[in-house]
Structure formats: structure tokens, C-alpha cells
Amino acid sequence: MALSPIIVAEPFDDRDGDGRIIFGTLNRKKYGVSEAFYQGQNAAGEYIYWPKGYTPVVAPPPPPAPPPPPPPATPGTATLANGEAFLQSDTLTVGFNAFGGIGTVYAAPEGFRTDTATGLKRVGLYRPPLDDAILQGRAIEGFVIEASGARAANMQLTGFSQIKGAFVDPTHWQGSFNGLHIDQVVTLDGDRLVFAVTLSNRSGKAITGLRYARAFDPDQSDRYLTTNKVIAPGAVESTLDGGGKITLRTDAASAYVAITAYNTASVIGRARPLGHSKTADEVVQLVIPCADLPAGGSVTTTIEIITSA
């Protein structure tokens, strides 16, 4: 017979006052035990006794509450994770690797859209219903700097991580190259991603032959051909196979469009004239020559990437 607590309206006679109750014949038959031990009263004022040999069943403690999930991404969301930056508007999601180029090494945090239809948990430049335009095929996006006869490129997913730097917040990357300090500040507004890039001379001497180029190769899943057309001296429009367009542009008066092969993305290519149009799997570059920069001087240029489905 399983033992259970004895609950009564009136207390048993505790002659010794030690809480131990020795049952007489009638109570032994009634409760099936010879002894019981007083435990206190319940909320109803009834008296509770544990029969001898009774082992209370102790419920295990409840499991700890799971940590709250991260808030869902909403228009204007921006965060850092694993040294990478993730931005999202209502239509466009962009991921930057730790070297300031588009295209992450790590998976996007919870709440950021990725091109799961083609198996991607990382993010480059994703504007549904288009496929991620950077991570398909060979992922190429980043920048090239030439200064005083030296050249360096940051396109991590292409194999170029030559300029050291880091994000100080989700929209601001800083780096340096041969005494040239780079501040890259980005703004995401709907389908429009804006780079404000400031180059500051901290070398202590003049920097000559300064050029900054933004380069990318827009692709779709298993469709790598794009029609790249120079639509202004500082603007190139890439029409993706299957629809959708990506425009790379700047208002810098000295800017020009260069196009090069995907295996020479880190080398600034040959300038193309206004109206040039070609359908190929090539890298588009927006090149901005800058005036010689004296010691302590700086120059800021603005570049836009505009997407449309």
C-alpha cells in the first residue's frame, strides 16, 4: 500500500510535544501505520502528518527559461557579429566581411534575410526576389587603393585581405595602408546603399597617384553573365541574367568605369567610354582618381549601389 500524507481537521494528541504521533489500534487500522510526524498546516488550516516510512515526492526544479530570442530584423536594423556587419532595410539585406567588402564569411544573425533558396546562410547583397548578387559564383566585391606607387585590395572572399582594419560600429569600417587612413561609412536606405569613403594622409609626407576603386561582379545562381553598360562617366548599370539591375555610381567629377576579368579584380582595369555595353562574366570597377594628398590632408568621396528587382 502506497503511503501518502495524512491530512486532518483537528490535530492528533502530541503528548511529548515532539511532533511524533504514536497511533492507537483504531488509527493504526485507519491509516495503516503506527507512527506519523507533524509537518504543519496547509492553506485551509488542516493539519498535515507524514506517516512513518513516507518519502515525499519532490518535483524537479523547472528548467531555466530559454534566453530571449534576438529581436527580428526590421527596416533600419544594423548589427555586428563575428567582426562582420549586417544591415537590412525593408527590401535589401547587406553583409560586410571584416575587411570592409560585401559578402560575409559567417552566417547572418537571426532575423536577417538570406538567400536560403540557393542554400545560403551568409549574406552579400540580397534583394528578393533576386538571388544574392554577390555570393553566387566567385564572390567578388571590395575596394582597391593605389597610393604613391603601391597597390592593395580588400576582397576577402576573392582572396585579397591586404589592408588591415575593423568595424567600429555596424556602419563604420576603419583601416590603414602605408600611412593612408581609410574611413568607410555606409548608409542603407531602401534599395540604395551609400558609401562615404574618407582617405586621410597620416604618413607625414605627400601621397601621390592616389586612386580608389570599388569593384564587384554581380551574379545569379548558375547565371553569371551580366550586361554591363556605362550610362554616365561615373556610373555603370549591370543587368542580371533573368532580370533585375544593379547600378554602381558616383558624382565624383574624375570618376570613370573600368571593366576587368574576374581573375584580375584586384588590378584596376581599362577605362570604358560612355555607352560601352557588353554581356559577359566580368568585374565592374568604379575608379576615382584623387589629387595628390599633402601630409595631414584628406579627401572624401561618395559611391552608391542601387538595386532593383
From TrEMBL:
It comes from the Bacteria. This is Uncharacterized protein. It comes from Sphingomonas yantingensis. The lineage of its organism: Bacteria, Pseudomonadati, Pseudomonadota, Alphaproteobacteria, Sphingomonadales.
